[in-house]
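User: tokens in, sequence out, please.
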């Protein structure tokens, strides 16, 4: 059997015998010649078969086989590869010699190009066949690999933290509770406590890309109940250091995407991947709200986080004033930050924390952590938390912990905004939301 050749390899292959495998996108069954557009995981190619039975007398079993093909049929074909600049699809085609059908659909596809996102998600395995979805998955792969490479090259350790927890790491209101033998357990909202545990352990620099869970009944374009969280934590830093590393990671990830997929993104999404300049603009939250107000929009609650319209407005300001798609909002009030965020010595009402906004949407939260156990206990009490319930966490700090900080970033949000998609549902392999547990 001839070795299988990927479609993307055909352009560089010599004319001659070839074997390709994939699924049928289109069949054009004409009187004198038949065309099949075959797609595999790397692209599409035109297959051609000049009929020999168009005189109505000479039998042509291959023509009959092609006529019986339906969209979505998985098959392998052998034939002669020919480079021909007249062929619109890549300047190549394969003259068919044989077809081996591996899997023919028994039903017509229930989705089309204009099908709603909810129905497409019902049939996600079919929706993912679209070239746009294939490219989204490859962009995400390249972006993740670039982040991992950046970390590993700088001596970070990759950790895999448990997703079953005995107590909350953030807000108990957003926890999924599950049966755990004779007890209760909770699905992890983030690896926050566990990645901090690596600091007194002496690991120094750690990262993780893994699932996280939030029992948040939100139906917005940027929320999910299960998502992939990109996390980092390291010792001997303050929040300014964390921001500097964060923006270097973003640049590394986007550079890799542009180099590997820039042409395909331009062709399928009509977008240019822009590599941002560093440092990203930085603006304290209170000042950002004043800027937004000057632009004609008042954030409804001045004692709360920036709302979605406020994020869009401050992003527009960053683009207009600094030419940047990214902006750090810094110095959040203690009332809207977790108890473990460190506070400014000269203004203890403000935390050494930030949110990173990308094209009008928050993608990440980062901070320097409080590492003094007595201060941690006091800040937990301020938040109405019982230090006794945080015993295992506070124990980390009773045996000595260096100053440290890190961030958590939503992977799907980054990819959604990078490719200008309308929802994270478009860029999540299998989306989970308040009313979706299938497929």
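Assistant: Sequence out:
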């Amino acid at each position: 059997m001839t070795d299988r050749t990927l479609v993307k390899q055909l352009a560089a292959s010599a004319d001659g015998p070839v074997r390709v495998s994939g699924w049928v996108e289109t069949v054009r069954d004409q009187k004198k010649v038949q065309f099949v557009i075959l797609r595999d995981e790397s692209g599409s190619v035109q297959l051609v078969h000049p009929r020999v039975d168009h005189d109505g007398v000479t039998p042509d079993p291959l023509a009959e086989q092609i006529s019986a093909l339906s969209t979505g049929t998985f098959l392998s074909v052998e034939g002669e590869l020919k480079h021909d600049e007249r062929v619109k699809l890549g300047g190549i085609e394969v003259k068919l010699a044989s077809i081996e059908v591996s899997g023919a659909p028994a039903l017509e596809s229930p989705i089309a190009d204009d099908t709603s996102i909810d129905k497409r998600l019902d049939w996600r395995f079919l929706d993912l066949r679209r070239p746009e979805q294939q490219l989204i998955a490859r962009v995400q792969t390249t972006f993740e690999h670039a982040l991992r490479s950046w970390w590993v090259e700088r001596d970070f350790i990759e950790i895999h933290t448990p997703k079953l927890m005995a107590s909350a790491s953030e807000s108990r209101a957003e926890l999924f509770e599950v049966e755990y033998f004779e007890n209760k357990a909770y699905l992890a909202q983030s690896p926050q406590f566990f990645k901090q545990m690596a600091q007194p352990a002496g690991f120094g620099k750690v990262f993780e890309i893994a699932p996280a869970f939030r029992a948040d009944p939100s139906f917005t374009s940027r929320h999910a109940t299960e998502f992939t969280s990109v996390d980092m934590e390291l010792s001997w830093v303050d929040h300014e250091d964390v921001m500097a590393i964060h923006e270097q990671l973003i640049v590394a990830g986007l550079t890799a995407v542009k180099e590997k997929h820039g042409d395909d993104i331009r062709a399928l999404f009509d977008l240019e991947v822009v590599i941002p300049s560093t440092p990203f603009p930085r603006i304290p939250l209170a000042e950002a709200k004043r800027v937004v107000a000057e632009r004609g929009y008042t954030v409804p609650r001045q004692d709360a986080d920036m709302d979605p319209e406020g994020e869009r407005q401050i992003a527009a300001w960053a683009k207009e004033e600094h030419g940047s798609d990214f902006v750090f909002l810094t110095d959040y009030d203690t009332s809207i930050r977790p108890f473990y965020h460190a506070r400014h010595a000269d203004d203890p009402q403000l935390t050494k924390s930030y949110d990173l906004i990308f094209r009008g949407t928050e993608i990440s939260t980062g901070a320097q952590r409080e590492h003094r156990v007595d201060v941690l206990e006091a800040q937990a009490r301020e938040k109405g938390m019982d230090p006794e319930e945080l015993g295992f966490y506070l124990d980390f700090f009773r045996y000595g912990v260096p100053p440290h900080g890190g961030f958590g970033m939503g992977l799907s949000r980054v990819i959604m905004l990078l490719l200008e998609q309308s929802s994270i549902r478009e860029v999540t392999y299998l989306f989970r939301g308040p009313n979706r547990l299938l497929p």
